[in-house]
Amino acid sequence: MKILIIQENGRHEKNRHFRECFCMQRSLQGLGYQVDVWGLGHDNFEMHPLWDSYDLILNFENYDLNGWLPDLSTTSNPKKMLWSVDAHCRGIKPFLDTFNGGEYDLILQSTEDFVDENSVWFPNCYDHTLIKPSSEKTDFLGFCGSLLNRQQILNFLSDKYGLKKDIWKIGEEMVKTVSSYKVHFNINLANDINYRSFETIGCGTALLTNYNPQYEDLGFVDGENCLMYKDVDDMCSKLDMCYDDPKLVSSISKKGFELAKKHTYDVRAKKLINIYESLL
What is the pTM of this model? Predict the structure, then answer.
């Protein structure tokens, strides 16, 4: 089978190889498929692919600020899927517009709440070949990511628990940083389950995140392989418990790392092929 993945190339050299298109390409190639990547910023961008030469086209581009995405409505041969990763940020409308305009067969929704008759749940994941435990755990609590709307809660945790703030660390530096935490704080922006959730347990670090029923559907169990809080008081109670019981943190980290094996790109690639075969 011949597959094309469409997505803009990564803009930062440090984490370009972490981009969804390359991670999925590696996993699908590992299953024996021919997989090409094309999009703005790639060396082959000026040469438009022969769309109908593919069996499956995967559109992973979620933003396209320059209008470079092709109109795929005239393609006749390939099945076409759109992976909606950031609908929790943009809303679902832009993805529905792309889906309808390009006459796609299916939307892969990373957020379960958006699943409808034209889509299936296809959660985020992580690349276990890039993200793994890589350093000694030296900090009790940390946050590695972008600030966005998290400044207030991060300041609170920094004052009360000495949270280490590592803002905008990417690529291998991100992996090393998250691996150095005993507990990694997370708060999702909306109704999503973000990449940080999977990357954290993939680093063998205990995940502390806000409650969302989607976590339970993915195998996350509060107090067993992660920690989920429903409000600030609950969060503080669990952090106090972790501070007093290092063995509990170690156990949660180990069980989280076992769960991570179910959420790799390799696992998602196999699911993707099963979805494709169901469309034939």
Answer: 0.97
